[in-house]
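#structure-requests
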Amino acid sequence: MFREAFNDLDTSLEAEGVELMKCEPNYNLWFGDGESFELSTDVARMKKEVEKWEGKDGFERYLGFLQEAHRHYELSVTHVLRKNFTSLLSMARPSFLRHLLALHPFESIYSRASKYFWTERLRRVFTFGSMYMGMSPFDAPGTYSLLQYTELAEGIWYPKGGFHSVIAGLVRVGERLGVTYRLSTSVSKIALDSSQRRATGVLLSSGETITADVVLVNADLVYAYDNLLPASSTAKSLQKRHSSCSSISFYWAMNQKIPELTTHNIFLADDYRESFDDIFKRQLIPRQPSFYVNVPSRIDPTAAPDGTDAIVVLVPVGHLLDDNVGKGLEAHGEQDWDFMVSKARETVFSTIEARTGARGLQNALVKEFVNTPQSWKDVFNLDKGAILGLSHSFFNVLSFRPSTRHASIQGLYFVGASTHPGTGMPICLAGSKITAEQVLKAFDVKKPWEGTRSANGSKGETRGLDRVQALPLLSNFHIALLIAFFMFIAVVLRFDVWEGFGEGIWH
């Protein structure tokens, strides 16, 4: 998706100075019983890891899981990520409907994984990724096994200097094309004409009005409807929709390296399902959380001074109190949040030390930044502090998800986690292309990226050696076997008929 975006802008990641570094292994998963599992794109490595727990048949089932997840990925890219769903009729497209059941949207990731993995350990290994969609693996549609597939088949790549280097590359491209970026400039509302049916620009908090032919909103969509637009029934209905989870996120500077940790680490709760139920059903901080630890300095030396580590920890928790359902986190003042953060920090330190053998983490911490559900809401304007926008349950995606264009206000468009196609940087990037195509179509402008070279550098011509030629369903050998088989049957039947008349050779 990222290569395609830069290609569409007639450049490339490399040309914009973005250096991608492959993380190997993808993850280390740490269990409470002292065992660990290494996820990798290396097939030999994965064979060893899977067979350790489920034997040789287990590895064969793993390949079957990959095949299904591959199908989920390719079908989703073709029929979801590159297509808009502007109405319920969009879901009736024959090209989409004929693949619907193959995407397993009515089964959970966990139930699909259970068909391929027969131990609870491996079921957890191959389903925790639903956290990236802000969903429990027991509720997330089976389609989302595509997340595991992309990492296992294509790997995890880290942009040197951090993800901001990708953003900086896009900014440079925009500036060359004449874009002016006004940072630290807050918008108080979207300006509409007298009929309230067309967007005419934005009103800044400073009182300045910027006029525009098109207003493209990349703020949290629920926040935008609640705070930047006039009150409406749509805004009220969005408040009633299920949201994703929130997080307590730590950003740590350590005065020493923590060699026991790899670049990506997952610590799974022993009470796996109960932990997710606390987050997604009860909207609480789990009694025993699963959490993610990233050590960027393990792969990128520029992420921390020599001899030290930078660490990012994400502890998924429930979102803020939802008055519509009476569930969610509620803190009465800063003191409550301080207690919750302190408890989460203590749990993270003790879990890492118990499972990896690392020591002295608390003493090694020299600087800390924290985000809580409250700061996600107050600083980043995320409704209920939900870090991944609206939920991705079946009735919150495709045609059921808020549209990329406002239904009644002309010239007003949306991108981001809560509109189609959904959350996550690559998916939001795919959504931005869909929205850009909508805007261009409204102005009858040809898409400038049509006809550009493909993202993989293909020249668009196929030579003889590279022409795809499907083999016949049956080889000449198999055809000969079938002919011999049918001749044998014919002879046997003929003998039986003769024998029935008392004239067969057996007499």
